[in-house]
Amino acid sequence: MPDADASEVASAPVTSPPLLENVERSALAEMFFALTPERILESVERQGLRTTGRCVALNSLENRVYDVEVEGAEVVRVVMKFYRPGRWSRDAILEEHAFLAELFAEGIPVVPPLDLGEGRTIGEIEGIFYAGFPRRRGRPPDELAEDMLRRLGNCVARIHNVGARAGATHRPWVDPDRMLVAASQELARRGLMPPSVEARYLAAAARLADVVRPAFGAAPGIRLHGDLHLGNLLVSVDDIGLVDFDDMMNGPPVQDVWLLTPGRDDHARRQRDVFLEGYTELRAFDRTTLRLIEALRAMRVVHYSAWIARRWKDPGFVRAFPDFLAERYWVEELRMIEEQVELVESGDDAPAHERVPDLGGAGGEDDPAWKM
Q: Could you give the 3-state DSSP secondary structure of residue 284?
């Protein structure tokens, strides 16, 4: 079983500063909301490309993404991605693009950004960053058969081998202080959480962060996809591709494992085992980090709600999450977080065959394939 080169792996800080976005304060926010197909086609043609006029919006809440037809020797389709202003700096986007280029050079099935001229992968239209990507065929799978899980395990191991070569200084860490404490405090500041749950919600998030902080501080961190759920896979008859590295981050490799196999039941554990069989053919995996999954589950839920709250002035989010301000939404979320705290503190966050020595309070794995 190959081992990761420890000299290539970045160590995670005990805490990392909250990544506070400037989305709402950006003067470009309204312009971003008002992006039209005409503006999209204009940005493509600025690169010296000629479009057919076909421009179709793709499903994306965070950014604005369009399928555009371009004329040349033959008509081809490209995906134009306009980054939400105030979220990522130019340097952070370049780290995403550089990682994709490294992976593609290794023959890993990812989609690198197009050269927009003179080696540039980032364009800008009135202060809004954008990039172009070749359109890859395929569709997200409904589920993964065992042979596909093994192949995917191999593929993710190769991604992590590349990710371990260097860190990403402009990208966040998978960190309980950022994703639990700062995110829950931001929700309280915004006043979107009902007073009936606020105190318990903040207390549960802080308590879980206290319990798992030592384990996350000790876990080696590498560059990750960061949001590797089934929706970010494209499968065709004999191929599999990984897309949407927008949430690329630094953290323990288990972050890219649990999202692909998120359940708690025996079927999910079997899927995880098969995935790791493929993974460990090319890279060692520390199974003790499976105990982080339940904490990662809660971190994702709190971080997700903070993400929605941060975008609440975007009309698309109000339409997409009509129950977000309802008390029942927050009561259910509080129930889930408190359940995670109990699982982690009781040591029941891993099945018997995955139980490992104490990690200073670390918790384990799970569920929703939500977009951060």
A: coil
Q: Strand, helix or coil at 116? A: coil
Place of tokens 């891993």: 350
12: nearest Cα among 247, 217, 160: 217
Q: Is the distance from CB of 304 to CB of 372 less than 8 angstroms?
A: yes
Residues 6 or more apart whose Cβ sits within 8 Å of residue 90: 122, 129
Quick check: 228 pLDDT over 60? yes
Residues 293-329 pLDDT 10s? 999 999 999 999 999 999 998 888 999 999 999 999 9
Closest CA to 249 of 15, 7, 80, 12: 12
- For the chain, how long is the longest CA-to-CA vector? 64
Q: Is 101 within 8 Å of 114 (Cβ atoms)?
A: no
Closest CA to 184 of 210, 206, 216, 214: 206
Place of tokens 């290794």: 106
Catalytic residue among 5, 142, 177, 227: 227
Determine the angle formed by the axes of helices 183-190 and 195-218, rounding to 10 degrees: 160
Domains of the chain: 6-18+141-354 (1.10.510.10), 29-134 (3.30.200.20)
CA–CA distances in Å: residue 280 to residues 120, 144, 356: 36, 18, 18
Upper half-sphere CA count for residue 127 (Cβ side, 13 Å): 10
Inter-residue contact 216 to 175 (CB < 8 Å):
yes
Calculate what percentage of the chain has a pLDDT beyond 90: 62
* Strands 240-242 and 128-134, sheet pairing: unpaired
- Residue 68 near residue 54 (C-beta atoms within 8 A): yes
Under 8 Å between Cβ of 233 and 340? no
Beta strands in 32-172 (DSSP E): 50-57, 64-71, 76-82, 123-125, 128-134
Total Cβ atoms within 10 A of residue 74: 6
What pTM was estimated for this model as a whole? Answer: 0.86
Burial of 94 (0-12, 13-18, 19+ CB in 10 A): middle
Catalytic site residue from 244, 246, 366, 367: 244
Q: Is 239 marked active-site?
A: no
Q: Are strands 76-82 and 64-71 parallel, antiparallel or unpaired?
A: antiparallel
Active-site residue, 227 included: yes
